[in-house]
Amino acid sequence: MRKTVPLTIVFASGIFMLAVFFVPHRRVQDTSQVLLEWDLVVWTCALFLSGLNLFIVNAKKVRRKERDWGYKVVLLVAFLTTLVTGLAWGVRAGTPFMFIYESMMRPLQATMFALLAFFISSAAYRAFRARTREAALLLAAGLIVMLGRIPIGDMIWHRIPVITDWIMSYPNMAAQRGILMGASLGAIATALRMLVGVERGYFGGEG
Amino acid sequence: MEYGTAQEPRQKQGILERLTAIDRRIIFVIIGVVVAVPVLYPITLPVLVSPPVQDLYDAIDELPPGSVIIMAIDFDPTSEPELYPAYLAIARHVFSKGLRVVALGYIAPGIPIGERALQIAAEEYDKEYGVDYVNLGYKTGMTVALLMMGKEIWDPYPRDHYDTSVEELPLMHEVHRLDDVALAVDFAHGVSPDYWIAYAGARFGLRVGLCATGVMTSQYYPYYDSGQLFGLLGGLKGSSEYEALIGAPGSATAGMTAQSLAHLVIMAFIIVANISYFIVRRRSPGA
Amino acid sequence: MDLTILSTWIAAFLTLAILSFLYKDNPVYKFAEHLYVGVSAAYWMVYYYNNAIVPNLIDRLVRDHRWLYIIPGILGLLIFTRLIPRVVWLSRWALAFYIGMGVGVVIPATVQAMLVAQLRATLVPIWTGNVGASIVNILVVVGVLSVLVYFFFSREHKGALGGVARLGIYFLMISFGASFGYTVMARISLLIGRFQFLFYDWLHLR
């Protein structure tokens, strides 16, 4: 029950979805649509679990009055308020939920990522050194692309954007293709191992 | 959090050593000023259009009037400054050519951003909701939705973003499968282009174009080279290129002054830091 | 007070609260950070509920009376056994279904869209009749192969294999440099966006 059932489920559902790709029969395709919906429900429940877990972990910290527990109260209040407003009043424009989105979530999300502008500049200054030939190549490509992707680059020398396009289209493209093909081979191998039950990481270390 | 201030006695350090161990808050201030001032006083700089953006523009421009295109909102506020201008510029281009739009997305916080751009462009070109464009909104489970759309778009999207049944939207009566769509442009800040390419593109034969954040751009060149993407727009610079192509400079073009100055300053940081590093290393090889 | 103005002021306060981290970690930043985590987690849960649980489970059962949908309902509930150590193994059934479906969908998609299409695009003529185009084609083929060799770990990177792998590293470094350039562009763009919000929408300086 603990091992055979899940391994059988992986194999059966995996083989069926593989067959869907090759068998255009209407009944097979319709069944796949239903299974995809089921898959969506299961996936969503997993995401709910993560939300619930976040709530439980932080509620425990508040109850035990652990370090920074006051901030956890902020987190829990924000969580519950957003959840209740979303479920009670919906998510259309003009609802309390959208007010929370516009006034809090949007600026918070945007500014969190905007902070990285400062950190990448600092990192570039403090750590970006041409210590080796490889690092020098990385640095040179980075500088050319940075210059080639601003209008001033073209003003300095009209060939800089052309060189940038060349770097992007050939050496960069070739390297990224190599990474993509390597990663694809890895993904296929892992997927096949899961299908036949060799890879059991999802058992949680008890496989 | 610890900040990297130099703790050694400063009087013993030369200017180069001090330069390499500068408090990073000074760098933060410089970057802040260099970006803030040009945002307040932007200068319009000439924008050169790169081939991948030109290809994106041409593919849309060549479509016969009445064709339907999907504009997928797969980004959120974290990439709004980069992709909102692209969304607005392409919506303007699309409406000016008499094309029709099906907007949808797989990142919920992005939907209101795309919606705003679409409404601005629709108002400018006097386009009617439901006839010239629809917004199907957010759908959980991208793979599932795309696979379903290959067979029947109404299945994953029985109602639009405003909770109206798609049956009541005239445009949707002509759009049942991905075959009914001329092409799709994904405005993305994550892995969504992989799904568009793999499912909508490879599996159902839809032509896919991409407007990506700067961070992602380089990794999508293989798809552009192989023809799996008909065009590729990268970051704020790409957005400014599209604004130049349609002759309507917007926030991306305005941002190019700040972008240019910030790049130059960061480049100067890197060059100064490297020169200091090499001089210091030559003085004391063990360092 | 107009809600739009209130919203803009709250957004401006939170923007500055996050930016205050640049000076040092502080209570205002921590407040904004925890607010962000709480709001965004619940935000997504609301959307997941409205966009998946309601149409794909509740509506199917209650409105359409499609009783087979009780199966994903049960599998979904089994996921929550992760919180009960005694029966945690039951969650594997649900995960197994999700993984099986994923595997079945991913394999053909990866082979078709990533492997075959990319391989086909790499199989270009080495000599095209034009020197420039031929050099570029050779560069691409050599680049792709050398990067693949670099990722081939089944043999030690020595001798000829090591030389090719080193060439692969050079290609990778150029690509990472290009990515760095683009990443700088992206991050600065986001900061421009925040300043545009503060100066234009909040302070109306333009």
UniProtKB/TrEMBL annotation, chain B:
Annotated keywords: Membrane, Transmembrane, Transmembrane helix
Keyword Membrane listed? yes
Transmembrane stretches, start-end: 26-49, 261-280
**UniProt protein name:** CHASE2 domain-containing protein
Query: Which source organism does the UniProt entry give?
Result: candidate division TA06 bacterium DG_24
TrEMBL record, chain C:
Q: Does the keyword Membrane apply?
A: yes
Superkingdom assignment: Bacteria
- Which keywords annotate this record? Membrane, Transmembrane, Transmembrane helix
Membrane-spanning parts:
6-23, 35-54, 66-84, 96-119, 131-153, 160-178
Q: What is the name attached to this protein's record?
A: Uncharacterized protein
Q: Which organism is it from?
A: candidate division TA06 bacterium DG_24
